[in-house]
Amino acid sequence: MDYLKLKSIIEGLLFLAGEEGLSAKQIADIVEQQQELVEKSLEDMKQDMEQGGRGLQIVRIAGHYQLATLSEHAPYFEKLAYSPARASLSQAALETLAIVAYRQPITRVEIEDIRGVKSERAIHTLVNKELIEEKGRAEAIGRYRFCMERRSHFWIISVWALWRICRSLSCLRTQIIWRKRHNCCSNVWRTASRL
Q1: Dist. CA 73–CA 62, nearest whole Å
Q2: What does the pLDDT read at residue 183?
Q3: Contact between 99 and 179 (Cβ < 8 Å)
Q4: What's the CA gap between 46 and 50, in Å, rounded?
Q5: I need a surface site. Which of 20, 40, 117, 179 has the fewest CB within 10 A?
Q6: HEC readout, the chain
């Protein structure tokens, strides 16, 4: 096997192995090469990455090699990890968004009453993502509305669409509360469940 190809394969293996890493013996077994050649390749790759000013490095921890980022770049990785726009919406945030879209304007207390659990974190997430915004005050309690600029991004057009969101979330409690609050008769509910 060509030496450059071997190094390329090893780099790919280390990437796929992630935090667990691979021992030189494991790599040697996979690429069907001698362990000494694999160890030499790993050392060459470490030097190449250092000299090339790359953002990745090869480290050896407890006999396993792994790809790792440079510690001096940690502040940038933290910004990415804690960016509010990076994370997808949780089930709680989706439930809260559906409730706000249907019942707007609505207070945090009313949202928590419908969901049956605290919703501060879900509301905070939705506000940070600019999906809902605070609109005025009701006796010192914030009233949240679905953010008008984002409305085009969602296909929420009726109670039935909101019910489908709750159903897709497998949130039986929310479905029961929805049914109870809107006094849906069983025929209408059966029709909605087929949508």
Answers
A1: 23
A2: 52
A3: no
A4: 6
A5: 20
A6: CCHHHHHHHHHHHHHHHHHHCECHHHHHHHHCCCHHHHHHHHHHHHHHHHHCCCCEEEEEECCEEEEEECHHHHHHHHHHHCCCCCCCCCHHHHHHHHHHHHHCCEEHHHHHHHHCCCCHHHHHHHHHCCCEEEEEEECCEEEEEECHHHHHHCCCCCHHHHHHHHHHCCCHHHHHHHHHHCCCCHHHHHHHHCC
For 141-184, what is each residue's pLDDT tens digit?
A: 556 555 544 554 554 445 555 555 555 554 545 455 555 555 54
CA dist 74 → 48, 56, 79, 83 (Å): 21, 12, 9, 14
Task: Report residue 185 as tokens.
Answer: 């008769």
CA–CA distance, 2 with 6 (Å, rounded to integer) = 6
Place of tokens 């679905």: 146
